[in-house]
């Protein structure tokens, strides 16, 4: 109904010749290297790298060890051009939504503007430069390296940009995606180009530049809102401004003088339906159409979608320390999600379909929040539209991460333009939960040893601290307060460090004791903060993805190619191997090693996710590092570059279920918790079974439990000795299950010892593949033996997706899994490969 109404709104308002026209300039482009007079076709939006790749002038930077061989590109200047004609109108402009990064803009050989910030869109008036018929637009992109080198040479300070993969860290000087310069999960590929669309706009009399729909009050009876319109009036006159939707139309007729001005129109929505995060209710979105009319002529319309809800971030002292949690519509909500990085080093390659799939993946895995991390980009409009639709709250960082930044007048002016542009662009979205100034800079200042490590003098250090306070304590805070009042802002995440026990009682935390601190996974059970906004562990992608960048001669983690796709130089492969040797037996071959790295990551991260949820309301959020990849290689991601779910994302789906059953060893007892994220109490049946690896039940118990809304509680506790009664802990498992109205709800398996200590059988798994109405199902059974971490794969289909994978198949049960594939059932039957711990590891 919402989409139908949206269409009707557009039909109701007539669109005459006077209406604004907006045309994308996305065809007919050419590019060249400035020191060569050879023009070649170009794709816009695009990048220099991808255009060169299309013309086969460079090798694929993502394959083999090609990355360093294409790094000459960022040292050169590049030029793009196209021709266009413009319709007749009072006014005309070119809207540049993304130029990367240092660019001179020429129209008919006249310099009409300069770009200096990848994150800022520009609209330039062009009426006086236009010619009848054909017009030429040229954009000269200066090398970001050559452009910023003088700043480095002239500056009296070297900034601690440790993730800049160059001997000379220039990234801090550019308002450009920091990850382009390298990070510990991605390559150094410093791009240039027209990375977002360019539009030709023509209009008459008035240009509606912005419509800010601000919720003023929300009750069950009524929502009161303001529509604040920013207008650029070219011709003085009486205009009618309309706010239309599935509510009473509001209109205002007013005489407007020439010039830029704002007009506010209040309106009301009766009996409002609230917008809820995923898992707690519907994502009601109200379409709103803004129109500017002159007499009977509609000059311009702008469409928005709004969600009605209240969001409050509570960060205040309490009897447990300092809280950090999100309240939505008055209810504290445990945040479940991950940290997001850009989905490609070459951003225009991220298609609308990839964004849609990414949000489907998040929703299917029971996310209700995603953190847009501060070393990437402010995402495009589709990203936030999808977040609104899918009920995924957005934690939005400003684009600063892991280093000091300049604080001179020119740099601060660039940042102010950037924040103004992006706050006004994003503030209408109901999914936008909070703004954060930067990633990890505050905690780095206190704990990373920058002062001594970079030999800063006292005066230099004080200058850096003052610059930090100016940027994050004043400029960004003031911009949010002015442009998006009421939205929570804090200067830096995390608020507390992970080195001391006291740190975990205050605010959000990035816990890296596991991985960087080389603490075992069990530390997740004891190192639980008020809100975990970063934690993680690496794995490799599966063999399908590795084949994309490494041929069989390189199938060894110590090979040149595999090491070139491992960017965590300080830990990396050695850490994965150390943890793997601790918890598992040796894998039998390279594909088994890849599989085992994913199982290692998934099982370890499961420990953390469940610990955070068990600890609510002390802990009220779990955002792991990281959701996705920007290129193929080893990383902390749960979804690889090609969109394939690793083992971890399957585990996330279960660990983030609305109702979770979780068992842990605490104080000599085996305690089973039940966590309920819902807003209503739940009456359930709890079943527990202690069984051996062949399925013989040694002990069992069944009891009704009533789970309070939005709570975590111990529902069963027993001494380990009383439970085992002499049984060998390496040869038994505790299977737990919840039923609702006698129907299966959720389950979990608790292991008493690491897999390395278990005599896991080489279970034989039988399969039956069937197809019904185009859906292919695989039914699996074992011959009375436990099969742990069962992985399904189709040998020839690298796009296949299974509804469940890396699961434990109990000796007494069976499991049916659906597979999304282009293959027939008969071919699936032939190509199905099954791996589990019992057959993937050596004796």
UniProtKB/TrEMBL annotation:
Originating species: Chitinophaga niabensis
UniProt name for this protein: Beta-mannosidase
Domain Glycoside hydrolase family 2 immunoglobulin-like beta-sandwich: start-end pairs: 207-309
Gene Ontology cellular-component annotations: extracellular region
Alphabetized GO MF terms: beta-mannosidase activity
Sections of the chain in a coiled coil: none
Domain Glycoside hydrolase family 2 catalytic: 327-441
Mannosidase Ig/CBM-like domain ranges (all copies): 668-756
EC number(s) on file: 3.2.1.25
Residue ranges occupied by any Beta-mannosidase-like galactose-binding domain in the UniProt entry: 29-196
Chain ranges of the Beta-mannosidase Ig-fold domain: 760-839
Keyword annotations from UniProtKB, A to Z: Disulfide bond, Glycoprotein, Glycosidase, Hydrolase, Secreted, Signal
Gene3D superfamilies xref list: Galactose-binding domain-like, Glycosidases, Immunoglobulins
A GO BP entry: glycoprotein catabolic process
Quaternary data: Monomer.
Catalysed reactions, as listed in the record: Hydrolysis of terminal, non-reducing beta-D-mannose residues in beta-D-mannosides
Cellular compartments annotated: Secreted
EC class name: hydrolase
Pathway annotation: Glycan metabolism; N-glycan degradation
InterPro entries per record: Beta-gal/glucu_dom_sf, Beta-mannosidase-like_N2, Beta-mannosidase_GH2, Beta-mannosidase_Ig, Galactose-bd-like_sf, GH, Glyco_hydro_2_cat, Ig-like_fold
Function noted in UniProt: Exoglycosidase that cleaves the single beta-linked mannose residue from the non-reducing end of all N-linked glycoprotein oligosaccharides.
Pfam families found in the cross-reference section: Glyco_hydro_2 (PF00703), Glyco_hydro_2_C (PF02836), Glyco_hydro_2_N2 (PF22666), Ig_mannosidase (PF17753), Mannosidase_ig (PF17786)
Family: Belongs to the glycosyl hydrolase 2 family. Beta-mannosidase B subfamily.
SUPFAM superfamilies to which the protein is assigned, alphabetical: (Trans)glycosidases, beta-Galactosidase/glucuronidase domain, Galactose-binding domain-like
